[in-house]
Design brief:
With about 525 residues, the chain is mostly helical. The protein contains 21 helices and no strands. Helix content is about 75%, strand content about 0%. The C terminus is likely disordered. It comes from Exiguobacterium alkaliphilum.
Length: about 525
Amino acid sequence: MGIATLIGGIGIFLLGMMLLTDTLKSLAGERLRRRLNQFAEGPVAGAVLGATLTTLFQSSTVTTLMTIGFVSAGLLTFVQALTLVIGANAGSATTGWIVALLGYNLDIRQLFLPLIGVGMALRFINRRLRRIGMLFVGIGLIFVGIGTLQESMRDVVTFSLNEWNADTPLHQLALLGTGLLMTAVLQSSTIGLVLTMTALATDTVSLTQACLLVLGQSAGTSLVVAIGSIGGWKSARRIVLAHVLIHGSILVIGWLTFPLLFGVVNEVADRLNWNELLRLALFHTSFHLLGVLTFLPFHEPFSRRLLTWIPSRAEKLTRFLDPNMSRIPAVALEAARRSLIEIERYLGNETRLLLEEGRKREDELQLVEKTLGDVRVFLSTIQLDESKGRNDYGQHLSLLHTIDHLERWLFVMREVEPNDVLRDTDFLVARQLVLHELELVDGLNHHTPPEESSRWKRASKQLAEYRKAHRAELLEEAATNQLEMESSIRKVQALLWLDRIGYHVWRATRHLIKPTVSSERFEVNLED
């Protein structure tokens, strides 16, 4: 039964961590997206934000993976992201203090079991407090899991590492490697820390051995981050490399200065009359702060070096997209929107080239087609929270409309070869109206206000009126034999071609800068 209890305790702890992390993501997503640059405007502010996020999520890995998504979405620069990653180290130290202060001085299961009941009651009774309720449930499960681990370790663990002399370099390396392996297997340094503190509380390991184990566990998070970022863009690879270098350096520095650091920790703890769990928490905090103080003052030259090692070869139109951000809808939708802005500007340049020089570059049009498909696939991976409200839904719907209009615009581009007819002076006004729309598209960016969509609408309406009037004139000229039938048909096709281009430019832009809301759904569908 002891082994079953141990496995169950780990499962309860993991379930609590997942609920806590997912709930905090849903609570903070939109607000965090809006204020991220404000919070991370300086190195100290960025480090504090990284530490705060890690304290909330109780996982530096989650903070790092979120940071990768923020950089890929264009919400943070790489330099800003680096300060968050550095600060996340300090935030991860809070777990040790929580466990040391609460986890083994009382029966925390009796204290936190009611919190689970209160949380579930809030979830079912009040819709508005549902997320707060799940937050309580997550916190309660974490500490119930810790209590279960504490009980099971006393029954299950019958071995000791006392034969590993922590004073010899070989045994120190073995303990560091064991800690790293624990994080790699458990996919969380937090779980490794809790297990190590449990082992220390049950006299399975000595304080020296526990300190070396948690030092190795910290370095193991780099492997977890690397696995979690597989499939990401170069921005993800840079942050993973930074994470590896930071944590690898902390491991080396911590090991080389271990006698000094361990001695200082014990000196402070002796004066405060602290037990071994508090000493371990202090050591855990000390080497993480050492890492922050080592890297934060030099984060700018460090980031420049990383950019040199992994150069930024333009991922052209989809550089904002990263598969790791799909669980944060607000960030993922903004990344998709920015990618579609880039794609529309790119397609606008190709359209202008066709209108002004009669050149149609099929390779570039294929690139646009492929990237539109990539954005569509990315949108399908976004996990929208039905309970969160209508903003994310409206943004998602608008982006699908944008893709539809861009694809129709692309289809029109490929439909005919109007090179000669487009130079016809009869259509100079129509061409100028389309070129005016494309000029506006060239200045389009993610800060363009929604009211600006009226400029594209006005040009498209003028184009439609021009098309109606001149189409009637061309057909009348053909009927009275003033114009050859074949020539008339070509001119009408060219006129319709210009009108359709102008229309799709307007509609694609409108959906990009003025997202749909639920009350507009049927009106928008009728317009489209």
